[in-house]
Write a structure and sequence with these properties.
CATH class of the largest domain in chain A: Mainly Alpha
Strand order of the largest sheet of chain A: 1-2
Structural class of chain B: alpha/beta
Number of strands of chain B: 10
Distance between the termini of chain B: 41 Å
CATH architecture of one domain in chain B: 3-Layer(aba) Sandwich
Shape of chain A: elongated
Oligomer: heterodimer
Strand content of chain B: 15-25%
């Protein structure tokens, strides 16, 4: 097709535009942050010297609640203990640790969620019997479940992964159920006319047809897995991950709020990376599919 | 209707429908008689069109022949075996009104689908799919995705796929109904060429009279409520049929013949309804 070259051209342009959009949003948020501090924060001081006195006072914008943006990034460059590594490099190591638990949890949860979805889609009786419990499992706060799992399985990154998988499987199960039933009824008849067995209908029709639904579920699950891994670290007393960091910086919040903010930025970053990885996989996997609208 | 089949049909029947009925359970529990007392014999290599107004059960009859639904009574046999057995033996190729191609497969892989399902080895799959695409003149598009093709081309892929296993019977349910008139006429010629090249038996559902006459060896006229066969019309136009066939006097005669037959079926139905209406009114008066 003659249009192919221009299609790639267009996608490159749209990718550049998307990156630009993200940068603009980050910039706007940073500016808003500075502006709020400028208008309603505590007096600005540099080395004890008053440089600016904001005209208003707003509790949520004082130095306790909202540290200066440069304080947050400044603290990343300094070690928290004399002679130790910079906070940013510490947080990076924590992120890698948490990412490991989240990735394993995502894999386990997605695998379990997919299998459960396939099972429920094929056995109607089971669907009616089990779906209420599946839904119920998600109404229990993860904070309440995490200690049970972590203590039952011994603290460690495997138990953390299990907590992450607990949050992961649900969207995948629901997405699978919906996706497996999204196949064109005519296509099902076509397979029937070819005397195709259930397994062939599943592999050649239902699963490929459900792929767009699955990737939507994976996107939700990927971020949920990061949250699950962080929450799972709390009762486990794991000190090597973001969960541990968030917990300890929480305790020092009144002294050094900017550290918690720094940890928060890394946590959010990890969630975004997880999401983007699924988006990349989706682009790769669904590139042959009919494009309805621009994929996220 | 079965008494005087043409010689070709009785010589080696492929499809034999005997006293077939189909009753559906309606929405409010009442029974809807979709087909009543269907007898039909189709000979090897015939091209049969089922024509009639909507609700006459022509698609249901097609689905009965293809074992996509089972009769409430009577029987359907394919070359002496049950329709069910025939489906398991993969004796059918099927083409719907929409092409029903799989987006995630290339054109070639779509044509290979029936071959994969029936366990044909990879090398042979490739070779046969290539031959089928050649037959429908789409070899250049083997690597394309279905959604990159026009509606007519997609339907040609669907035909190639349906023929990939070299089936005994090609079932087509209004395959060109969604195409514009120009494309449709071109597809008609194309289909006749493919039919003659493969020698398969075709059962073709349509509600276009010219299409039915142009394509078929025989036209089966059906009428609704209950769905039944009201006429069988032999189309004695010579093959190969070309665009000039549509100019022949005999062609117009046959089109008129089918149209009148359809109207007669409708008229009978209208008469019955009027009769029923009179009865209801009479009963109402007497009550």
């Amino acid at each position: 097709m003659s249009g192919e070259g221009s299609v790639t051209g267009r996608s490159a342009v749209s990718r550049r535009r998307r990156v630009l959009g993200v940068l603009i949003v980050v910039l706007v948020i940073a500016l808003a942050w500075v502006l709020i501090k400028f208008l309603a924060g505590d007096p600005w001081r540099i080395d004890g010297q008053l440089v600016h006195n904001p005209p208003f006072r707003w509790k949520l914008a004082n130095d306790q609640s909202l540290p200066h943006i440069w304080q947050v990034f400044g603290t990343m460059t300094r070690p928290i203990q004399p002679g130790g590594p910079a906070l940013a490099s510490l947080l990076f190591d924590f992120s890698v640790y948490t990412a490991r638990g989240a990735a394993l949890g995502f894999a386990l949860g997605a695998g379990f969620g997919l299998s459960l979805g396939i099972l429920l889609a094929h056995v109607r009786v089971l669907e009616r019997a089990l779906v209420p419990y599946v839904v119920m499992s998600q109404t229990v706060p993860i904070i309440a479940i995490a200690p049970v799992i972590v203590i039952g399985l011994q603290a460690g990154w495997f138990s953390v992964a299990i907590v992450a998988s607990y949050l992961t499987f649900f969207p995948v199960t629901i997405g699978t159920l919906r996706g497996l039933r999204s196949a064109d009824p005519r296509a099902i008849e076509l397979m029937r006319s070819l005397a195709a067995g259930r397994r062939e209908v599943l592999w050649k029709l239902r699963l490929p047809a459900s792929a767009p639904y699955l990737f939507t579920a994976f996107k939700i699950s990927a971020t949920a897995a990061v949250v699950g891994a962080i929450v799972g670290e709390l009762p486990a007393g794991v000190r090597d991950g973001l969960g541990g960091a968030l917990l300890s910086f929480n305790q020092y919040y009144t002294i050094a709020p900017e550290r918690l903010w720094a940890a928060l930025i890394f946590s959010a970053g990890l969630g975004i990376v997880a999401f983007m990885l699924v988006v990349a996989a989706e682009r790769l996997f669904l590139r042959g599919y009919r494009q309805t609208e621009e994929l996220t | 209707m079965t008494a005087d089949q043409p010689a070709s049909a009785s010589a080696s029947p492929v499809v034999e429908v005997r006293g077939a009925r189909k009753v559906f359970a309606g929405q409010s529990g009442q029974r809807v008689e979709a087909l009543r007392d269907i007898d039909l014999t189709i000979g090897r290599g015939e091209f049969i069109s089922l024509i009639g107004p909507s609700g006459c059960g022509k698609s249901t009859l097609l689905r009965l022949i293809g074992d996509l639904t089972s009769p409430s009574g009577g029987s359907v046999t394919i070359s002496g075996k049950s329709a069910h057995r025939a489906r398991l033996d993969r004796d059918y190729g099927i083409v719907f009104q929409s092409p029903v191609l799989f987006d995630w497969r290339t054109v070639e892989k779509n044509v290979q689908l029936p071959l994969e399902v029936s366990g044909v080895p990879r090398a042979e799959r490739h070779e046969r799919a290539a031959r089928m695409l050649e037959l429908v003149e789409l070899s250049d598009f083997a690597g394309h995705r279905p959604w990159q093709l026009s509606g007519g081309m997609q339907q040609r892929v669907a035909i190639a796929r349906a023929l990939a296993l070299n089936p005994q019977i090609l079932l087509m349910d209004e395959p060109f109904g969604a195409l514009d008139e120009m494309t449709r006429e071109r597809m008609n010629l194309e289909l006749l060429r493919v039919w003659q090249a493969t020698g398969t038996t075709v059962v073709f559902v349509t509600h276009s009279i010219p299409e039915a006459v142009f394509l078929s060896t025989r036209v089966v006229v059906m009428s609704p409520r209950p769905g039944r066969i009201t006429d069988l019309i032999d189309v004695d136009l010579p093959y190969p049929r070309t665009i000039d066939t549509r100019e022949l006097e005999r062609y117009f005669e046959l089109v008129t013949r089918v149209r009148e037959s359809l109207r007669a079926g409708e008229g009978r139905e209208a008469g019955e309804q009027a009769e029923a209406g009179r009865r209801v009114r009479a009963e109402g008066l007497s009550a």
